[in-house]
Design brief:
47% helix; Undecaprenyl pyrophosphate synthetase; 9 helices; 260 residues; globular
């Protein structure tokens, strides 16, 4: 294979220069602790190349591993990935079968990194047994030196999460013999937060959605009340490190008010 000529290398060199410049401009004291990511646009990415949908989902899975590497490099501690919503469960059986297999393979690849811990979010009863078991097994693993905690939202819906939290809270109250009327009078935000899928974790500081869509689609509806949002035009498989660095730069320049 012939080496690239100098003119052919110029775009890559300029990109590398710009990436390094963005990286140096970041205030490392203002890197988000927890980032939520809506990995949107896999199917549209495949369609623009007249490629099968499978290829888009696989490219999206590959990007997830690359993205987590960027997060580890920059010191992000928690990432929540919106990989499959309850609404997505209405897709064709053929596409779901392919997608479930790709998700399972991605979990295996995550398992290869001993510094990553994984927490499953969603309704395991909606998933095939092999995938639910793989999520459960991976979630039970505890790394000796954790660098990154990854929440995997598969079969996840924000409204369902809140309903599940309230349902579990009520069941515990009944089991403890508490008066439900008194509980209703005393119920506060912290009571419900203790039963969310992300219980014990910090709320996301930054939520990123790719593909140009500007809506939550049920993602972390409770936890994102005071999050900063960044919407990127790039489809998820085409999301570059410079896109991520721009999101972090934008986040660092904001004045967070937390509802004030």
């Amino acid at each position: 294979m012939q080496p690239y000529s100098w003119p052919q290398r110029i775009p890559g060199l300029l990109y590398d220069f710009y990436e390094r410049r963005l990286r140096r401009s970041l205030d490392l004291e203002r890197i988000p602790n927890h980032i939520g990511v809506m990995v949107d646009g896999n199917r549209r990415w495949a369609k623009q190349f007249n490629a099968p949908t499978r290829q888009g989902h696989q490219a999206g899975a590959d990007k997830i591993l690359e993205f987590l590497g960027w997060c580890q490099e920059l010191g992000v501690k928690v990432v929540t990935l919106y990989m499959l919503s309850t609404d997505n469960m209405g897709r064709s059986a053929e596409e779901l079968d392919v997608l479930m297999g790709i998700i399972a393979n991605t979990l295996d690849r995550l398992d290869e990194d001993a510094t990553i811990s994984v927490h499953a979010m969603g309704a395991p009863e909606l998933l095939p047994d092999y995938l639910a078991e793989r999520l459960s097994g991976l979630a039970a693993r505890r790394p000796k030196q954790e660098r990154l905690h990854v929440n995997v939202a598969v079969g996840y819906g924000g409204r369902r999460e809140i309903v599940d939290a309230v349902r579990e809270l009520l069941r515990d109250a009944v089991a403890q013999g508490r008066d439900i009327g008194v509980l209703a009078d005393q119920l506060d935000v912290d009571d419900i937060s203790k039963y969310l899928y992300t219980r014990g974790q910090p709320d996301p500081d930054l939520v990123i959605r790719t593909s140009g869509e500007q809506r939550l689609s049920g993602f972390l509806m409770w936890q994102s009340a005071y999050s900063e949002f960044y919407f990127c035009e790039a489809l998820w498989p085409a999301f570059r490190k410079v896109d991520f660095l721009r999101a972090l730069r934008d986040y660092a320049g904001r004045q967070r008010r937390f509802g004030a």
